[in-house]
Amino acid sequence: MDSPSPQSRPDVSAGDAAHILHLYTQIVDKYAIQGAFLASLRNDEEVVYITEDNPKTGIEEFSFANAKLRIVRLEDLRDTKIETGKKRIVVDAGSFSKKERAYEIEQREIYLNELAERHSVNCLCTYDVSKISPETIKHLVRYHNQLRLTTSDLTVVSGDIVDKSKLSGGSVERIVKENLDTLILALLQKKPMCGSDIIEAIHLEFSVFLSPGTIYPLLHSLQERRLIRSEKQGKAKIYAPAQEAELKIRDLINEQIQVRKLLNRYLSQEMERGG
Question: Would you state the pLDDT for residue 262?
């Protein structure tokens, strides 16, 4: 099969069907993510579980759902007849032992996206983020209409996916670095994090990699401003909002939002005048 040209690659518009990309880190229980997807399973739905793990593991992990569970190996996916009807598909990509080429991943996601669109099949694709490159993540985003990230016990949900293909990587990186203190404060409002957690969260959200030499001096500065505090947990230093600083942090974040709104309004008006 020939690789599709960029012009022929479909953008996701899967109606009521969900085609979810869920990225998780190594310390996360993938079965908890997949089980949550199946928790609302109806009696008339069938589950097609694509994995290279031992089939018995899937049967045991999802026994709570009392579902008709069909386990399929990756190599047999194309030959498996997935009939129309009420189904849920779970792709356990973190189990795949073979390092797939970007082309192979893309072809699978095109196939799954077509299933979701044509038959209103809900599909969950779970990937261990440590096993795939940032470039691969960019390609995966194009074929899903929802994006979720789970790191430790924090789940970040980005409803509809923004078309980042229209954004310049350099522009995104510049904006991220210019607003890095506010981004860090926003992240720490959700959950205490160590420096590497912050780097990972920003990388996954914006495809911008920040070095420890950028993050840690800023964390130190925020501590000196008494906006955040830190404590040792094992070998890691965990950062969280300082006591009695929550209101000030919210004010700083809200101020940044209002400044951006003002700038966006001005740019939109100038675009309209120029058009």
Answer: 80
Q: What average pLDDT does the chain have?
A: 79
160 & 200 share domain: no
Tens of pLDDT along 214-260? 899 999 999 999 999 999 988 789 999 998 898 899 888 888 888 87
Q: Could you report the per-residue pLDDT of 43-96, keeping only the tens digit for each? A: 777 888 999 999 888 888 888 777 788 898 888 876 666 655 578 889 999 898
Q: What is the CATH number of the domain that holds 252?
A: 1.10.10.10
Print the SS3 string covering the chain: CCCCCCCCCCCCCCCCCCEEEEEECCCCCHHHHHHHHHCCCCCCCEEEEECCCCHHHHHHHCHHHCCEEEEECHHHCCCCCCCCCCEEEEEEHHHCCCCCCHHHHHHHHHHHHHHHHHHCCEEEEEEEHHHCCHHHHHHHHCCCCEEEEEECCEEEEECCCCCHHHCCHHHHHHHHHHCHHHHHHHHHHHCCEEHHHHHHHHHHHHCCCCCHHHHHHHHHHHHHCCCEEEEEECCEEEEEECCCCHHHHHHHHHHHHHHHHHHHHHHHHHHHHHC
CA distances from 175 to 63, 169, 184, 206 (A): 47, 10, 14, 10
Q: 186 and 56 in one domain?
A: no
Q: Where is the domain boundary, 112, 146, 165?
A: 165
Residue 159 sits in the same domain as residue 174: no
Query: Looking at the 3D structure of the chain, how many domains does it have?
Result: 2
CATH number of residue 73's parent domain: 3.40.50.300
Q: 77 and 38 in one domain?
A: yes
Task: Tell me: do 120 and 244 sit in the same domain.
Answer: no
